[in-house]
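Here's what a typical entry looks like (Isochorismatase domain-containing protein 1):
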Amino acid sequence: MAAAETAGAAAPGGGGCSPAGGGSVPVLFCFSVFARPSSVPHGAGYELLIQKFLSLYGDQIDMHRKFVVQLFAEEWSQYIDLPKGFLVSERCKVRLVPLQIQMTTLGNLTPSSTVFFCCDMQERFRPAIKYFGDIISVGQRLLQGARLLGIPVIVTEQYPKGLGSTVQEIDLTGAKLVLPKTKFSMVLPEVEAALAEIPGVRSIVLFGVETHVCIQQTALELIGRGLEVHIVADATSSRSMMDRMFALERLSRTGIIVTTSEAILLQLVADKEHPKFKEIQNLIKASAPESGLLSKV
């Protein structure tokens, strides 16, 4: 890892901690979608924090990138760059943030660093969501591809007591997690814990409903945690095509990749010599013909 950097002088109000005596101090160390509690000696500075990040997340950190350490400042209710000369003296929360994206990997997908997110494909949405039958078909294609390629799948269901379970056409066999929720975003503590169990996660392939609500809020939370997000345009929809269109436009402007199921699956195999290429090819050929949904992107 290139040397992590600090920025700026101490924040107004200190941005740090008041003296709290010797011993160890509890610190929450955050990186990407993960948050792990630990402790450091009282008076620990920048170098010890970096060492702790490496001990907690060494297998997740790209050693060739630059990072900045940030401290959560209660005064501002957000993270600030770690003030120069900062020393830990009371419990606090810090995070490690990449300073730059490696353009050589931007948009690339590999099965070993990818997780599929299937969002709220539930029975009660069937009559309300435009092209719902089509996105069910494409969603099933993606989940079959995930099983063939050994890609973990995380599934959520929005308030299933009232909105029903995932539709029967979608086979959830082998899903790593199927989770009920009331929050619109899929980024729940249980999901973050499941991601923490998967080494080297870099990319999330996201599909389901509704594009402008749960899909949008999930995508924005994920990129805020440093993950690359691919939204499958032919496997996501809303009740209103206007809502869907503006959500996809907004998300693409934030750096989220809007793509298609076929592009995703073929990018994941990457080579006709891949041992699963024929099965993926047959899966694509056997899928339902293209609907009018992509013309609405």
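Residues 8 and 90 are 21 Å apart (CA to CA).

More examples are in the samples folder.
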